[in-house]
Amino acid sequence: MRRLALILIALTTGTLFAQPEIENTWVGVLREKLAPHQALALRDHPASIMVYLTEARERITGSEVLRKAGQVAFLNAARYAEENLSDQPMEAVVVELKSAKINSALITLDPVKLDPQYHIVELENDRVRVLRTILEPHIKSPMHEHPPYVVVYLTELHTTMQLADGRTVDNPRKPGEIAWRDQMKHQTENIGSDTAVEIQVELK
Q1: pLDDT confidence of residue 62
Q2: C-alpha neighbours within 13 Å on the C-beta side of residue 66
Q3: Domains of the chain, start order
Q4: In the prediction, which pLDDT does 61 show?
Q5: Do 91 and 30 meet the contact criterion of CB atoms below 8 Å apart?
Q6: What is the pTM of this model?
Q7: CA-to-CA dists, residue 126 to 101, 172, 198, 202, 204, angstroms
Q8: pLDDT tens digits, residue range 154-180?
């Protein structure tokens, strides 16, 4: 149904919206790319988290917004149009929240409390908590938990994740990649030579 709605919007407005790269009961995760001075038509948007992969200067229904690469913003559900005001292309990952809440189980090993230097709260409300996770080379995090979440990788990284059941998962990533994670307990180590950064959108 959602895909059909997007196709109908494209046919009636002449604008083709990206298909979700991740879609489940709770979120649809889109990659939004706007060419210099490209405008998107007026439409209804659900509540969304924007993770900017590039710098952005855009107009959202009359208001000019400036964002840095790596910045995160929360947009309430509303009807609005978008326009890239820059001479440069812009790209963002959009995590659209569906009406169904996931009602995550409480976690006891909170990374913000256990590892506050490297797990920083970017924003929080009744639907999400968004963390900026910084992974310095060869630093291993303490064992910690996340509720179900979306990960947006801002930089290249190569980590290993040791899971609660003892398994080790190899996790090489490129900038701009995204992933869905079910609720999990793990310990992460950056085995690369550079500091890596990712955004984690935890669902409530």
Answers
A1: 83
A2: 0
A3: 2-7+16-97 (2.60.120.10), 111-203 (2.60.120.10)
A4: 81
A5: no
A6: 0.89
A7: 10, 32, 22, 11, 7
A8: 999 999 999 999 999 999 999 999 999
